[in-house]
Design goal:
Strand order of the largest sheet: 8-7-11-5-6-10-9
Shape: globular
Radius of gyration: 24 Å
Strand content: 15-25%
Number of helices: 17
Distance between the termini: 12 Å
């Protein structure tokens, strides 16, 4: 799985999803041509072009109106999803309905937004809106979810697995599928189906797999915490599979997804919290730090992240980024990020902000937190600037008297960021990488050029009793997790910073960051 993670890590999440959807459309076209899928293959291809074109056109207009760059691949994703939901037909009314769904999907990305992030899944919004309008006006039904057909099940499963691995949103998908199957399968068995056949029918003929793996996992519309994602997934699944009606709206996957999006928005927004720039400085040759004073106390647990919205004319990486929080004693918060030779428009703007400039907090979240039991020992493995979430965690551990060990991969000739604060905690720290040219502080030890099971076991002989955390780029997190598993550690809390708008790690990792459209941070327990 590490090799698969590494392969997927070379692609943006948008690219993984768009390629997967293209594969689905291609497979459906081929299978329809030989009679395995009951749709018109020509109508499918024409419909896909119409949906993508309409979504792109609406996104272009919306981008011009609000002064934002259009994310072409995002529009392609929404258009292809719509082509897999609405029944393919060459009838003018059906094509108008599909185009209308694309227009609504594209417009929703600019109309229904909060701090530059859309609130509703665009494809679900487009499908529902078009269905509500097209049926009374044109006699065309809304989303048929025809992609849920047994012949396409293997392709949907592979595409869904790739998306889940790339986004690392396993928890909501498992919760959604588990809840949906727990309702559907017993119902089919009660109707006379054998259990195995009922399971295959539920997976192949119900849209649970596609809706859960491809649409529910959209990072921009998920809550920040894993338990919140799980709760939302259960609610969405129940609204999908249980019969209900409210006026003209009835149970359907798209309605359920939109209700889940609304719940995620309600629990995730941080209205009224603004951050004013206090200071901006370089803290290492390629690392910059910006310190802010919040308009009111920011409720952040050590290890969590804050998503910033910085209005500007963005490049493809968007107007938001997620940063691990470095708290100050005076109530300020700081964020550090790598500043390479060609930084994103977001980082250029953030770096250039003068004192007094104000940015908005779009979200707070993350599951990389110390155990509730204050006596539970921990092991922190950081790759590069992925040490940032561990600064506050090490300080909290020292305050609680908790036994904490830090393993830090650092290859630069100069000391790592926040070396003074880490040293002040008294945390035992083992440095991995080239032998440093700078003097090691007290309780710091260089243990070798690379992290291996032998190196880790010798440095931390009581591994089995520690709660392990890994933070950094996807490649570092995968490597650290593999080493831990080899050493017998089965539970690893991971903070993997996965690029969404561009294949770059997020701030607080080896790279630079941002959370989707920008980039996303996801935490998972193995």
């Amino acid at each position: 799985m590490t090799r698969v993670d590494a392969l997927l890590g070379r692609l943006t999440t948008y690219r993984v999803v768009s390629l997967g959807l293209v594969a689905l459309v291609a497979a459906a076209t081929v299978l329809a041509s030989v009679g395995r899928v009951g749709v018109d293959p020509i109508a499918l291809l024409v419909g896909a072009l119409v949906a993508v074109a309409a979504t792109l056109a609406a996104s272009w207009v919306g981008g011009r109106v609000v002064g934002r760059r259009v994310h072409v691949e995002s529009s392609v994703v929404s258009g292809l999803i719509l082509a897999l939901l609405l029944w393919p037909s060459l009838e003018p009314a059906a094509l108008v309905t599909l185009a209308g769904a694309g227009v609504l999907a594209g417009a929703s990305k600019y109309v229904l937004t909060w701090h530059g992030r859309h609130v509703l899944n665009p494809a679900a919004a487009g499908a529902l809106g078009a269905g509500l309008v097209a049926w009374p006006l044109l006699g065309v039904a809304g989303a048929a979810w025809w992609v849920a057909t047994p012949a396409l099940l293997p392709v949907v499963a592979v595409v869904g697995l790739a998306v889940v691995l790339r986004t690392r949103h396993l928890v909501p998908v498992v919760a959604y599928l588990g809840t949906g199957l727990a309702v559907v399968v017993p119902g089919l068995v009660a109707d006379g189906a054998a259990p195995g056949a009922a399971l295959l029918t539920a997976l192949g003929s119900y849209p649970l797999l596609f809706a859960g793996a491809v649409m529910l996992t959209e990072p921009l519309t998920l809550p920040a915490r894993r338990w919140q994602q799980g709760v939302e997934a259960v609610v969405v699944a129940l609204l999908t599979v249980l019969p209900w009606r409210l006026g003209v709206v009835a149970a359907s996957p798209e309605v359920a997804l939109l209700v889940g999006n609304a719940l995620a928005f309600a629990v995730g927004r941080r209205g009224g919290v603004r951050l004013a720039v206090v200071a901006s400085r370089a803290i290492a040759p390629d690392v910059h730090e910006v310190t802010f004073a919040p308009s009111r106390p920011l409720r952040v647990v050590p290890g969590q992240w804050v998503e910033l919205h910085v209005p500007h004319v963005p490049d493809a990486r968007g107007v938001r980024r997620t940063f691990s929080v470095i708290p100050g004693d005076d109530g300020t918060v700081a964020f550090a990020y790598r500043l390479g030779a060609a930084p994103s428009s977001f980082k250029r703007t953030l770096t250039a902000l003068p004192p007094g400039a104000v940015v908005d907090v779009a979200a707070v979240g993350g599951d990389v937190r110390l155990p509730r039991a204050p006596g539970a020992p921990v092991l922190l493995l950081a790759g590069g600037i992925g040490v940032t979430p561990f600064v506050a965690m090490a300080e909290q551990a020292a305050h609680e008297g908790r036994d904490a060990v830090l393993v830090l991969r650092h290859g630069a000739a100069s000391p790592p960021p926040y070396v003074e604060r880490l040293t002040a905690t008294g945390t035992r720290t083992f440095l991995v990488g080239p032998r440093p040219d700078w003097p090691l502080p007290a309780r710091w030890h260089h243990v070798g050029p690379d992290l291996t099971p032998r190196v880790l076991a010798e440095a931390v002989p009581d591994l089995s009793r520690r709660r392990a955390y890994a933070s950094g780029s996807p490649s570092w997190v995968a490597r650290a997790s593999q080493v831990l598993r080899t050493c017998g550690v089965r539970r690893v809390r991971r903070d993997a910073f996965v690029g969404y708008g561009a294949p770059r790690p997020r701030a607080g990792t080896d790279g630079a960051g941002g959370r989707r459209q920008a980039e996303v941070t996801t935490s998972a327990t193995l």
